[in-house]
Amino acid sequence: MMGPNSVRILEELLSQCPLRLSPNDQILDLGCGKGLTSLVIAKETGAKVYANDLWINADENRRRFIEWEIDKQVIPVCEDANDLHFEKKQFSALVSIDSYHYFAGSKGFFENKIMPFIKDGGVVLIGVPGIKDEFEGRAAQILFDWLGEDSHMFKGPKVWKELIGNSDRIESVRTWEVDCFDKAWSEWLAVDNKFADSDRQYFDSIIRPYTCFVGIEIKLY
Ligand SMILES: C[S@@+](CC[C@H](N)C(=O)[O-])C[C@H]1O[C@@H](n2cnc3c(N)ncnc32)[C@H](O)[C@@H]1O
């Protein structure tokens, strides 16, 4: 784990928005980190998974995928989400858990940098940490002690919906606060890890009262 249990969040997104894919479909796990979600996506959908991350290099993930015996189905890639080199309309679906906020918080990003790689009729499922709608606009002040300069990345469900926008390829966008927040966080805070130690200090005072995990489902025509 690299933060609140990404498998819990993925599980909730998939149960609300099931992906019906076959081994011929390709799916992009964007910001996959060490590939935990890529493993689950591969097992749950049977599709070929491109596991893309920036900070974790492809060789490191490839070694893990060989160990997990999923290397025939899961392809590690190391590219910046701002400058991806996949084929246009390559993916039937895209999943991104706990990473989209690092790179996608500007208007037009989805339409220009991500959507071109998704097939017509494709589905995008995103889970990002955010601020509850009622505290929108105050993240820099409220979250500063915990996140410092990164606080501005935390946006609420309403703002994420606006940021995704309404291109003519988009059929629907739905954003909501996911239910598994407490469980995903408690599983992360139980881990022996220096980042979890630091999060533990702020959980009761900042994280739990003001933040949420935002689910985003985008369906394309
Ligand atoms: C908190 S980790 C989450 C990883 C994984 N999705 C999980 O939940 O276990 C955030 C990930 O976002 C990735 N990331 C940040 N900026 C990125 C970018 N510009 N392009 C691709 N990935 C990026 C990082 O490499 C990092 O692994």
What does this structure look like?
The chain has 221 residues and is of the alpha/beta class. It has one domain: Vaccinia Virus protein VP39 (Rossmann fold, 3-Layer(aba) Sandwich). It is 38% helix and 24% strand. The protein contains ten helices and seven strands. The chain has helices at residues 6-16, 36-45, 58-67, 100-103, 109-114, 139-142, 144-147, 157-164, 181-189, 194-210, and strands at residues 26-30, 48-52, 74-77, 91-97, 118-131, 170-177, 211-220. Strand 2 (48-52), helix 3 (58-67) and strand 3 form a beta-alpha-beta unit. The chain is globular and about 45 Å long. The chain binds S-adenosylmethionine (SAM). The site of S-adenosylmethionine has 20 residues, from helix 2 and helix 4.
- Count of strand segments: 7
Described by the principal axes of the CA atoms, the overall outline is globular
Total domain units: 1
Q: Gap between N and C termini, in Å? A: 34 Å
> CATH-wise, what's the superfamily?
Vaccinia Virus protein VP39
How much beta, percentage-wise? 15-25%
- Average of the residue pLDDT scores: 97
Q: Which oligomeric form is depicted?
A: single chain
**In percent, how helical is the residue content?**
25-40%
